[in-house]
Amino acid sequence: xxxxxxxxxxxxxxxxxxxxxxxxxxxxxxxxxxxxxGDLLLQEITAGIEQATDFxxxxxxxxxxxxxxxxxxxxxxxxxxxxxxxxxxxxxxxxTELPLYFRPFLQSREASxxxxxxxxxxxxxxxxxxxxxxxxxxxxxxxxxxxxxAPAVVAxxxxxxxxxxxxxxxxxxxxxxxxxxxxxxxxxxxxxxxxPELNLMLSSALSTAPADPSEPTGAISEDSATLLDQFxxxxxxxxxxxxxxxxxxxxxxxxVAMHVLNSIEAANGGDPERLVIFTSTRRPHLRPxxxxxxxxxxxxxxxxxxGVALLRSREAQGTAxxxxxxxxxxxxxxxxxxxAAPKLPxxxxxxxxxxxxxxxxxxxxxxxxxxxxxxMEALAAVAGPFPAGDLAxxxxxxxxxxxxxxxxxxxxxxxxxxxxxxxxxxxxxxxxYLRSFRQREDSDSRLDDLASRxxxxxxxxxxxxxxxxDALLSTFRLLGLSGRLEEAQALHRGLTGTLYATADLLYxxxxxxxxxxxxxxxxxxxxxxxxxxxxxxxxxxxxxxxxDEARELGNHLVARSPVDVKVLRVRGRIEYIDKNWRxxxxxxxxxxxxxxxxxxxxxxLAQAMVRIDDWERARVTAKASIDSGGDTPYTLNLYSxxxxxxxxxxxxxxxxxxxxxxxxxxxxxxxRLGRIAQQQGKRMEARDEYRKSVELDPRYHESWxxxxxxxxxxxxxxxxxxxxxxxxxxxxxxxxxxxxxKAKIALMRGELNNAQEYINDALRHARDRQNLGLAMRVLxxxxxTGDMATARAKPEIALLVNELDAMGYGSDIDDMVKxxxxxxxxx
Length: 827
Description:
Layout: E1 5-8, H1 14-24, E2 28-29, H2 31-34, H3 41-51, E3 54-59, H4 61-64, H5 67-83, E4 87-92, E5 106-108, H6 114-123, H7 138-148, E6 155-159, H8 166-177, E7 184-188, H9 195-205, H10 217-232, E8 237-241, H11 255-268, E9 275-280, H12 290-293, E10 294-298, H13 304-313, H14 320-329, H15 334-340, H16 355-365, H17 370-382, H18 388-394, H19 399-411, E11 415-417, E12 423-425, H20 427-438, H21 443-460, H22 468-481, H23 485-491, H24 496-508, H25 512-522, H26 527-543, H27 547-560, H28 565-577, H29 581-594, H30 599-611, H31 615-627, H32 633-645, H33 649-662, H34 667-679, H35 683-696, H36 701-713, H37 717-728, H38 735-749, H39 752-765, H40 769-785, H41 790-806, H42 810-819
Parallel strand pairs: 1-2, 1-3, 3-4, 4-5, 6-9, 6-10, 7-8, 8-9
Antiparallel strand pairs: 11-12
């Protein structure tokens, strides 16, 4: 398609615009040439922008005050947001500072030669964007329409796996069923959206003042109920996306979800056109009367014909039959199809029917540029409005590099635009890139920089700006994660939900002291609201060694809610943390007596069973957890460990590969794959897995040590010594293991005196199976080579045999006796 330029300029810069048109050729929109006398100005400008492939602003001190330049840019920007069908290009004619939102589109600074500018515009054409299509979902849209006009239905709850297209479907349904997209307001839920945050979001969506944050939670909830009613009473539809964050462990709607539902139901009064829509990745568990008031809609994958159309739109190669087969193998999961498209055609065995794990696996293997990966990480950390210029500056990228990175992320379907037009990551990959961000060695400094930039940006926008609330919540969270709680609370003191979510993330990162400090700030005195913060507080106390305080708090919560599964589970975790395995089991079993198929409790119980060496019950329980929907990477890893104990290495490896697909950046999972391969005698494969582990996290000393050990076994001594040097440079590396590996390398090199010295040092630190076995090998080798008298070696070997036998490792001794019978007593 030939380029057609729209040149936006102030009247003072008209001469430059005309000269530029002369160099670009006839396909240029400039008002002097294209507007006839009597033409309607607004219609002509709109038509010019609609027909343009490239929108060019001539930026200058005169353009700053030109209302037409601002108006034209906003029209072009809307078109760019909708389908990126126009390229935005900024040409600076002087040194006038660019607004933040212009900077990603900068093409040239202080241009003075129209010919040079024309050459730049003609030869740096952006890559044409891939257009997105909406594929037929008429059946699901009909269900939403039926619910809209059913007097007894208060809400539609649409659920389906992440990436299946819930957001797109709801947007399309609203577009078809209402006269304007202004008839809907979308709220994106996360784990930090409690009563105060919800009130801010509702008030921002309706451009009205929020409740006073100093008011009690009940008063804030009443204000939110009024806001919900105001909009639905005039035919408005509230959409709450990602509402799985408002579901309890058993799937029942939690406190905030019930507040929304009760508010809508109370105001409904039989009005058939009042409706609220929820979307979630989990199916809600509804009890009477809500099971009749809420319409459940499961969104499954695309039908094969539409899946093939989607693949074609993403430039997948292959025959119709090959693409249809791929669609069926992926269950029509739209995001998985988008990610798989560049890899097609492929054989059926290349795919897994586990849609989400497949998508995550494909994301992990997608060849994104280094710049794009860093942009994805930063967007995951920010999770809110953030100036493109600041994003580029924080990552030390040029505006062109940032534009290229965003375009690449969008081409893979990983980056989206929010309702208020800022960049966000697809929900399916947000946690993936956040984990990647937090694993960076410079994560803390980058986070602190992002927090400072977010705080500065917040001061530049009005509280009435549509982006303000999202920017406030994002900034508050960034400051909190950076340990700058006072600065966060200076912005807003009532964001208890966001503060709790921040504390939870700190807990996941094992920053218990800071998490505990934040949790104290979230407590309201209302135990029904404070339940989750108090449960997290109990766990933090236990990990900090304050077990008595944790037990006291846990006992109080159990006495108040004796059949609350979550409370019983946390009470059991307190005992588990304190290594009281059997007492932990008692609480886990009490929880399972209330909810027998709870996958989280089954996983906890299996873990405790392993600790008391009840491997058979652990195996059955872990399998039950997976079969009940608890096939998380953690539980798969646990089950693999149990299978490994039973020496069922093939199935153990299969479970670990599933765990890796679910969490491909976890170095511990790669390490376990290496262990399993090593036990199967696949030493080369084990070495490769250990290498992948340290590539994911160079601080993971277990894999450095294993890499050193397996490399020594393979005779790769230089690699072994290099891996060992990396391990020794890390803090808290087990001295016994380091000395063991040094002894093994020395033994393999024939340096027997050094081997004896190193293994003696290892035994001083730990008299375990590995060290005792290697000590026997060193003694045997010394006797065999004459470095030590056999008569002297045999008594020392006998002592080691007794120790190993007492530990239950008689099979290790039998193997050595078969290989070296002369060095063992014949009794």
